[in-house]
Amino acid sequence: MREMYSLPFSHEDIFSGKAGEQIPYHRMYGKQYCVPALTVYTPEELKELHTAAEAVDAIYGKVMRFIQRYMPDSFLEHALGIHPGLIPAARMEAVTGGITRQDWIIGEAGLKCIENNTDTPTGIPESAALEHILIGRTEDQAWTAPSVHMDARIRDCFRSWLSFYAEQGLQGAVTFTSYGEHVEDRTNTTYLMERCREAGYEVLYAPLEELEIVPGEALYHQGREIQLLYRLYPLEYLIGDRDETTGVDIGVALIELVREGQLGLMNPVQHVLMQSKGFMAAIWSLYERNEQTPEYCGFTLFDEAELDVISRYLLPTYFTAEPFEQSDAPYVAKSYWGREGRGTVLLDHNEVQDPGDVVDTNRDTGMDKNTNAARGSTLFSKDDDEEEEVAAYYENQPKIYQQLVPMEQAVIQTEDGEYRGYLLTGVFVIGGRFAGMLPRVGEKVTGDMAYYCAAAVRKPMNDEEEKEWKS
Length: 471
Known about the structure:
By secondary structure, the protein is an alpha+beta fold. The strands form 6 sheets. Strands 1, 4, 5, 6, 7, 22, 23, 24 and 25 form a 9-stranded mixed beta sheet that branches. Strands 15-21-16-17-18 form a 5-stranded antiparallel beta sheet, with helices on one face. The relative contact order is 0.18. Residues 352-382 have low confidence and may be disordered.
């Protein structure tokens, strides 16, 4: 059972001031999202998470380069599920390292990374700003904030990206975009924008719906040409976007600007390779066939240290359920582009779990909760036909199959009373370096309405402090 520390304040006490300004979506859909509580980790857990997360990030980066350089287009399209229109741009080798968030389970099997959100991760202001505020309200020296360096990591990441793009001749203000009316997305986007400003760059915000593209020419906002764009919008949606009035394939035209070197995206398009859940199965396949890689490319892909990282921290993941069905082992079926738990089901000894037992594939790109501009429909409408259409969209995607490991239990106090749930630990890795943590407590496997409970690390106590604490 994970230790949780409830702050002696009500929700309104915490969020009526600065915290509410930093996280205006502290309630979602009329329900509490941010809870005045701390998820307590030990110094030893933080140390291992720090090392493990950076090592896993390095594995992802190495496999991404291997796929870019050695795997055919057919592998990208079919094994990874990459839209053919994205493949040429996804092969473009931008600087490695970006804004990513891994999701970890801490349990009896140790630390296990169950997936990596590499395209449009959110939860950034919660970790970077709210965590510090909540720990500060304890007026206690017993805690340290694990996300204390997150702002610096973000600034360094933008410097790395923008130095790379400057070498390509891309310049001018950095435009940040998301759906302007979606509070969570806009808050995450503008938080990053301010860190980029602090790093010394000119920045502007432009709502996604106000961007204009002239195919073969440039991307514009109110007549101003954009050469550098941070977008909180998934690439698998973008490539299918079409202007219903003009018939212009907006996504195709934008990706063509990237291919022609006229537009620099952040995260770069190469991140779509790692965002595909097929990438996890690709890593495991390469791991199991490591001794065969010299026959294919002339060198052994993973060294002994990397093999140890994969076996210790990643889970067996396959393109077929057969390995689990043959052994009667529990597993998870995940749609390649599943979001908010959709398209993901837990199976234990071939018995489908309760409908609520779905994996949260991240509280990311919040437009999924409200609108899907690429398809012009409301996603979470009460309309049964629309709900069935959305369910079919995710369920009909190709799937990967991953070993199921149990999650750690946690009990928190909410406005609705005691809630007994399960902990998923998000770990931000930004620019290749550990940056912060995003703990969420939800259903048997974290769902869309999971609670955020800030991470805190208990400082080691001396003998007298420990005696007093235990008393």
